[in-house]
Write a structure and sequence with these properties.
This protein is an all-alpha fold. It is built from 9 helices and no strands.
Length: 233
């Protein structure tokens, strides 16, 4: 019925076309100035946090393991939206006030760190113990062994799932609209609140998310194919 009305009513079609065209630039600004930077910054910080958390989980120090386990358990076991609300709306009760964009970075980074740590840990443990022993046999320390032998191999193993994490993060940034970050979905909400064309605006923003994620998915598939050929050899 909706599509029939559009194509049978020239005035309605023109109205929807004008709305879609006029909203495109604000949506793209929201993507390039908030959605994409938020995704990249959060992923980089989260990846660093994931590496240290994974190493902490594998540490011989029980206390360090315990802290890392608690962190991973909390951020994997609670909804991301709730975490963002606690950081942005909850912390001010403790006189800790964080602006929307930094609050979103903190929330997404902690989430990526928790999920990414399990990917990194699994990749590290997949490396044969003989690789560790080979490094120690030529006089390498633990940190040298890790840096020069183990992590480069683990990176190849973890790259595909981490790529998938990044793609998921781009879509998850829409949750930042709930803490007043003017990213792409928030812009769509603001525009829709003025013309009440929610279906049109939300469909348009969904299309833009897809256009961002689709080429990344192709790149991820190419990486997986190259790595699979490498391991087969």
């Amino acid at each position: 019925m909706f599509l029939n009305n559009i194509f049978t009513d020239p005035d309605l079609l023109e109205r929807y076309t004008n709305i879609a065209q006029s909203s495109l630039l604000p949506l793209l600004k929201g993507a390039f100035f908030y959605t994409i930077p938020l995704s990249i910054i959060s992923f980089i910080i989260g990846l660093i946090l994931a590496i240290f958390t994974a190493l902490a989980r594998m540490s011989d120090m029980k206390f360090v393991q315990y802290i890392a386990r608690i962190y991973v358990s909390i951020f994997r076991g609670t909804p991301l939206l709730v975490q963002l609300f606690i950081i942005f709306y909850g912390l001010p009760n403790l006189n800790i006030i964080i602006d929307p964009f930094p609050a979103a970075i903190i929330g997404f980074s902690l989430s990526v760190g928790a999920y990414g740590s399990e990917i990194v840990r699994a990749a590290i443990t997949s490396i044969p113990k003989g690789q560790w022993e080979a490094g120690y046999s030529i006089g390498m320390s633990y940190s040298q062994n890790l840096k020069r032998i183990i992590l480069p191999q683990a990176a190849r193993v973890s790259l595909p799932p981490l790529s998938n994490t990044f793609i998921s993060l781009i879509k998850d940034t829409s949750l930042a609209s709930m803490i007043l970050v003017v990213e792409m979905f928030r812009v769509a909400q603001q525009i829709a609140s003025t013309n009440y064309e929610f279906l049109l605006l939300y469909s348009e923003v969904a299309l833009l998310y897809w256009l961002i994620c689709f080429p990344l998915t192709i790149i991820q598939q190419n990486i997986e194919e190259r790595l699979s050929r490498h391991f087969v050899k």
